[in-house]
Design goal:
This protein has about 625 residues and is of the alpha/beta class. Among the domains are: about 325 residues, FAD/NAD(P)-binding domain (3-Layer(bba) Sandwich), CATH 3.50.50.60; about 110 residues, Succinate dehydrogenase/fumarate reductase flavoprotein, catalytic domain (Flavocytochrome C3, Chain A, domain 1, Alpha-Beta Complex). Helix content is about 30%, strand content about 15%. The strands form 6 sheets. The chain has a 6-stranded parallel β-sheet. The protein has a 6-stranded mixed β-sheet with strand order 22-20-14-23-24-25.
Length: about 625
């Protein structure tokens, strides 16, 4: 059986629902999977943590990258992606992305998404962003691309859907009630909003059999149930909330990666967290979601300057301000260190009021809401956590190392991004691999056996306030700048946090009360520990992983991926005859050659990986 036996402490499921496919998440990746699966006749249940449009997709400003313009080709897009990925992209995965991408964007338009077009020719307007040598970024509403894509997909899903009760503990609306007519052979999409998915269900053979979840009721905490299905698609987005300042919404707490780890799946490249170079600086102590200043602002000609007006990126890279994001983030951070400043500036005053209001209305409004007018003054900016290039390890069909479990979008590590995501490739990746997942699910209709409901876990939950401690630990020790000493300090602090909770459980039989806040804190802690262990192991600087003590890239040793799993229960230091941990869960860290990135054929047994080195932490 593939599961590790580690589960979040939660009440036993009090209700069960049946579906063919469960999609966890409602961004571009999740909703595209749902629509494609329903079109193939599947009964789909979409589970989302808040409302349908509360994920990261609607916050995407810049746009979606694809070779749509005259003179541009998938081969050129591939080259730019490989350069940005700093030697760790899986070239086959990138080729899939760039060759299937243009048609995927056209299908998105057919679904109802409207991109900005020329008033004279009617052609899609394209812009440039960092790392791109051509204008290939399609945008909508100026700088509201994600919001437009989210709107179009949500409308399509609601047209194909059966309304589901929001915030209700227990079974939502029964099948067939309150929906719209469906064509013969057409599947349907049902929605469960305000629900946190807890853990994967598997059958006796280790095949995916569904999920457990908690529906957040009006003032109630007893809505734990299960959705049983032959396939589960994780599309839960990122984990930016593991840091104090991030562009990610509050729901981005790494839930999908944590669930996958507990289910026995492999995760890869978690050390590669992209810090967006230009996030509106709101103060050194600012926490939570911060306003993004899109890379498209630089693509249209804004300059990065220091307090004296010096364009410090010139001479650091041939593309200056439009260098790949890791290079720009490092350039800003270095200049901050050299000058003792807390931030740099993005100067777009030469745009004029009309361009700001038409091309970047969202950014203009956000800046003015914080007392800054980009029309008349430079914007203070600093790097903040933005995107996880790593995640749950998948093959080219989105399949993980657990049969029947898929991952798509930011939660996944497809091999496309390598050590640093190329700007605006994220929405495209969600589209392309969502369609591939739907095709694979349709090609493998076999149903799993009955799910095995395990005994309640005795692993401790962290208190809700631990979230803020984790964020500060990670910002200090594993942020833009890292070193052996800072990572060691972070690892020890996270270990102590978990060990204290484990000791309280062992000594007094007490742990934090199961609820959304404690489940999120526990997920964040698990994800943070894996990230730190991977960052400690990669003793080089590559892409968005910047080691001050190892400033050079080392292709001879480290052109490899770091794959992390949780050890099986026997390795957890459990006391004989009991299930109380004497120590925090152990992590197994393994490196594999880049040629062996994909986990191997599915469905089936273990996935082959070339032998590498292993280390237990």
């Amino acid at each position: 059986m593939s599961t590790t036996g580690i589960r979040l402490l939660a009440p036993a499921p009090g209700w069960a629902h049946e579906a063919d496919v469960v999609v966890v998440g409602s961004g571009v990746a999740g909703l595209t999977v749902a629509l494609r699966c329903a079109a193939q006749g599947a009964k789909v249940t979409v589970v989302t943590k808040a409302h349908l449009d509360d994920g990261s997709t609607r916050w995407a400003q810049g746009g979606i990258a694809a070779a749509l313009g005259e003179g541009d080709t998938p081969a050129q897009h591939l080259d730019d992606t490989l350069v940005a990925g700093a030697g760790l992209c899986d070239e086959e995965a990138v080729r899939v992305l760039v060759t299937e991408g243009p048609d995927a964007v056209r299908r998105l338009m057919a679904t109802g998404a409207h991109f900005d077009t020329s008033e004279t020719t009617g052609e899609i307007l394209l812009t440039r962003e960092g790392g791109h040598h051509r204008r290939r970024i399609a945008h909508a509403g100026g700088d509201a691309t994600g919001a437009e894509i989210s709107r179009a997909l949500i409308e399509a899903v609601r047209e194909a859907g059966v309304p589901r009760a929001e915030g209700q503990g227990g079974v939502p609306h029964a099948e067939g009630q309150g929906g719209v007519p469906h064509a013969e052979g057409q599947g349907r999409i049902e929605l469960i909003e305000n629900a946190l998915v807890l853990d994967l269900l598997t059958d006796a053979a280790g095949n995916t059999a569904g999920v457990t979840l908690h529906v957040m009721g009006e003032g109630q905490r007893d809505g734990v149930g299960s959705v049983r299905a032959r396939a589960v698609v994780l599309a839960t987005g990122g984990m930016g909330q593991v840091f104090s300042a991030t562009t990610n919404p509050s729901v981005s707490t790494g839930d999908g990666v944590a669930l996958a780890l507990r289910a026995g799946a492999e995760v890869s490249d978690l050390e590669f967290v992209q810090f967006h170079p230009t996030v509106l600086f709101l103060g050194a102590d600012a926490e939570g979601q911060q306003p993004l200043v899109s890379e498209a602002v630089r693509g249209e000609g804004a300059h990065l300057v220091d307090a004296d007006g010096v364009r410090f990126m010139q001479g650091q890279h041939e593309l200056a301000e439009l260098a790949p994001r890791d290079i720009v983030a490092k350039g800003i951070t270095r200049r901050m260190q050299e000058t003792g400043a807390e931030h740099m500036y993005l100067d777009g005053r030469h745009f004029g009021a009309e361009m700001w209001s038409k091309r970047f209305p969202t950014i203009l409004a956000a800046c003015r809401a914080h007392g800054i007018d980009p029309v008349t003054e430079p914007i203070p900016v600093a790097p903040a956590a933005h995107y996880a290039s790593g995640g749950v390890r998948t093959d080219l069909r989105g399949r993980t190392t657990v049969p029947g479990l898929y991952a798509c979008g930011e939660v996944a590590c497809t091999g496309v991004h390598g050590a640093n995501r190329l700007a605006s490739n994220s929405l495209l990746e969600g589209l392309v691999f969502a369609e591939r997942i739907a095709a694979d699910i349709a090609a493998h209709p076999a149903a799993p056996g009955a799910p095995v409901i395990p005994a309640p876990s005795r692993f401790p939950l962290l208190p809700s306030e631990a979230r803020y401690g984790i964020q500060r630990i990670m910002t200090r020790g594993a942020g833009v700048l890292r070193s052996a000493a800072s990572l060691e300090e972070a690892a020890e602090a996270l270990h102590r946090m978990y060990a204290d909770a484990a000791e309280l459980l062992e000594r007094d039989g007490k742990t934090a009360e199961p609820c959304v806040e404690t489940w999120e804190a526990s997920n964040l802690c698990l994800v943070a520990r894996v990230l730190v262990e991977a960052a400690r192991r990669r003793e080089e600087t590559r892409g968005c992983h910047w080691r001050e003590d190892r400033p050079e890239r080392d292709d001879a040793t480290w052109r490899r991926h770091i794959v992390a799993t949780l050890d099986p229960p026997a390795s957890h230091g459990l006391r004989p005859g009991g299930a109380v941990p004497a120590a925090p869960a152990t992590l197994t860290i393994r490196t594999t050659d880049t040629a062996d990135f994909a986990p191997g054929p599915l469905p089936g047994g273990p996935h082959p990986t070339r032998p590498g080195t292993e280390q237990q932490r």
